[in-house]
Amino acid sequence: MEIILLQDVHKLGHKDDLVNVKDGYAGNYLIPQGFAIAATPSAKKMHAENQKQRAHKEEKIKEAAQEVADKMAGLKLTIGAKTSSSGKIFGSVNTIQIAEALKEKGFEIDRKNISLHNEQIKEIGNYKADIKLHREVSVEIDFEILAE
Fold first, then answer.
1. CB neighbours (10 Å) of residue 6?
2. Using CA atoms in the order 139, 11, 123, 84, what is the torsion angle rounded to 10 degrees?
3. How far apart, in whole angstroms, are the C-alpha atoms of residue 139 and residue 137?
4. 6 and 37 in contact (C-beta within 8 Å)?
5. pLDDT at residue 21 tops 90
6. Where are the domains of the chain?
7. Which of 16, 50, 106, 147 has a CA that sits 20 to 30 A from residue 81's CA?
8. What would the DSSP string read from start to end of 25-71?
9. pLDDT tens figures, 54-104
C-alpha cells in the first residue's frame, strides 16, 4: 500500500515521503495513529502542491542545519563517568549524556538524533557519534570518556 507520511517514522521515512508498506502495517498502525495517510490520487495532488510551497522554506532550514554542523565540526566533548579501578564504567554511556554535554556547549540536540558508532560504551576512551541535524545534514563528533 502506498502512503504519505505525516511525520518522521523511525526506519521508514521522513515527513512527506511517499512510501510503500504492507497493507496491515498501514491500515492497523500508521494511519490510525496519525503517522500517515493513504496515497490516493487526490492526496498525491495535494502532496505535490504542498511540496512546491514548502521547497523554499526547506532550503532555509537546511542552510541553518548546515551552519550548526559547521560550528560542531571539530568539536571534542569530554564526558565523566564513574569507573572501577580497571577502567570499566559502572553502567554505560549513552546518547542522553552526549546530549547533555552538547547542551553545555550551547547546542540543543535531541538525543534521538544522536547515534553511537559503538552501541555499548562501557570503558573509558575515545569514541565517535553521528548527529543528524537534518535529513541531508549530519556531522560526526569525537568524545572522550574520562573517569570521575
1. 15
2. 130
3. 7
4. yes
5. yes
6. 2-63, 70-147
7. 106
8. HIIIIITTTTSEEE--HHHHHHHHHHHHHHHHHHHHHHHHHHHHHHH
9. 887 888 888 988 998 888 888 888 888 888 888 788 888 888 999 999 999
Which grid cell is 71?
A: 560550528
Q: How confident is the model at residue 117 (pLDDT cuts 50, 70, 90)?
A: confident
Distance between CA atoms of residues 89 and 122, nearest Å = 5
CA distances from 53 to 14, 18, 19, 23 (A): 17, 17, 21, 30
| Fold held by 2-63 | Ribosomal Protein L9; domain 1 (3.40.5)
SS3 17: coil
Amino acid at 23: D
